[in-house]
Design goal:
The structure is a homodimer. Helices cover 52% and strands 13% of the residues of chain A. Chain A contains twelve helices and nine strands. In chain A, the strands form two sheets. The first copy, chain A, has a six-stranded parallel beta sheet, sandwiched between helices. A three-stranded mixed beta sheet of chain A has the order 7-8-9, with helices on one face.
């Protein structure tokens, strides 16, 4: 398994880390990158995450045998449409998008007859840091990587992509794009929305400075993901809005239930809920759900 | 400033850490403790957090010149009623409760004419760990300590308590019990409720194992406070239910607003909210609100 020329479209935390990991494992020859921010691309070059900066995605994918699209998901359709005609017939394409149904639909539109070359992928390795400067060859080590293969894919190509991510330390699993978007609406997209909502709720008040003054470690950890990239999360929320709304409705129902416990002074019900939640979290931390 | 005999009622994370810190700074002679769990009390003794275990609060406070009540807040009234008649006239009493209006009311009921000896205190040093085994002399270093003095207090006593917490590293400030409960409903009690709610929301589903399987670092940090002590948080939520409900309503309104943005596909509004929240959090982390 070796790729002569790898093209990274969007060399941020994920794209840059992927490239560094490939290089560390000697799984690739040359890596070229392209992206919107000149400063970030220079940082990527300086870090050795890429060997050359290309002006656009079309120039980047020329003669590539592997392409990773790691831009915010709202840009995918434009990117697929641009690169489609320029992909070699043996070139494999994958993405790192946090949503999958929209990405697959954009790929079908943009790649047309070359759709079989595209294997949708989602590395579960977000961080509140972004940009090539934060990239690290270790980012995917021990982290999950979800593939949502298409019926058009050749199994051998899916296996190549799976082996590639395994080689750089990821734990690869497969599901459908629909399953994927449901799962991540619950365990990732909703928590991000809630963290943003809480910080916004507090920061918009006249006494925000005093409130922040007394916010401590619990608040810091709870809101860590509210330091995530706003554009990236806008795109994720928009692309997965139906599943995210469904999760939001479930959560609102849960809050209604808890509000009623508070109103009725039902201390026993509240303690049971807290205890159940703590226990479930402990089981999760112990790896009982792996 | 030196206390010959200190009594700790409830020698958990907070009570144990307070005692260890006093000993480290040589601010006390003997420390005795009492608590409900024999195993925990033995751990406290083994760690050197206390020098002796007393059978109950009444025995513990006899001849003490400083008492710290660090039990779950629902037990305070019973404790104050029990110790009231046995407090020496020069003995100072303080607590470590996370709510203040209820604590003050319980103290007034229980201490009667000795209410001037009680200085309400709240160290902002929670952790998802609990028990004497997790105690540390460093727990309060750099952390905030809020005093909510009573009009009955002598200023000299309030100053003694403030100096004591300052000596073990805390940053002391003052507010009224009402202000306190409003501030902490927003920045502490609501986030705890939301974290518990999210874990419970997910763990109650038939596909919980698979969902947890894909929960990653963001989820872990967001829900860290859902590993907090259920009984302690039941008591806090009950004691401060009016302010907490008010915060919950505000948050539900915020979620309605965000839900409408998702429904309308208002990507710009969502991105602005995310960006504003991230900026506010960054300013907070930089200490701009201190």
């Amino acid at each position: 398994m070796h790729f002569e020329k790898v093209a990274i479209v969007g060399v941020g935390l994920i794209g840059g880390s992927f490239s560094l990991a490939l290089k560390e494992k000697k799984l690739c020859g040359r890596v070229v990158g392209t992206g919107r921010s000149a400063a970030n691309m220079k940082a990527a070059l300086a870090r050795g995450a890429i060997d050359a900066i290309e002006a656009d995605a079309v120039a980047a994918v020329r003669d590539a045998d592997l392409v990773l699209i790691a831009a915010p998901v709202a840009q995918f359709e434009k990117i697929f449409l641009a690169i489609g005609p320029h992909l070699g017939t043996e070139c494999l394409v994958m993405d790192a998008g946090s949503t999958k149904r929209d990405v697959v639909s954009a790929a079908k539109k943009g790649l047309g007859g070359k759709i079989s070359q595209f294997v949708p992928a989602h590395p579960i390795a977000g961080a509140e840091k972004s940009g090539a400067a934060a990239a690290s060859a270790d980012l995917f080590r021990g982290r999950r990587l979800v593939l949502t293969p298409l019926k058009e894919n050749r199994e051998k190509d899916v296996k190549t992509i799976a082996d590639l991510w395994t080689a750089i330390g990821a734990r690869v699993s497969r599901m459908t794009p629909e399953e994927h978007d449901g799962v991540f609406a619950a365990v990732s997209h909703l928590p991000h929305l809630l963290a943003y909502a809480l910080v916004d709720d507090i920061s918009a008040r006249p006494d925000a400075p005093r409130l922040f003054c007394y916010a401590a470690g619990g608040f810091r950890d709870f809101t860590r993901i509210a330091s995530s990239h706003p554009e990236m999360w806008r795109d994720i929320c928009m692309a997965n809005s139906d599943r995210l709304l469904a999760e939001l409705r479930l959560f609102e129902k849960k809050l209604k239930t808890i509000g009623a416990m508070l109103e009725k002074g039902d201390a026993a019900a509240l303690e049971k809920l807290f205890g159940d939640a703590r226990l479930a979290r402990e089981r999760w931390l112990k790896g009982e759900y792996e």
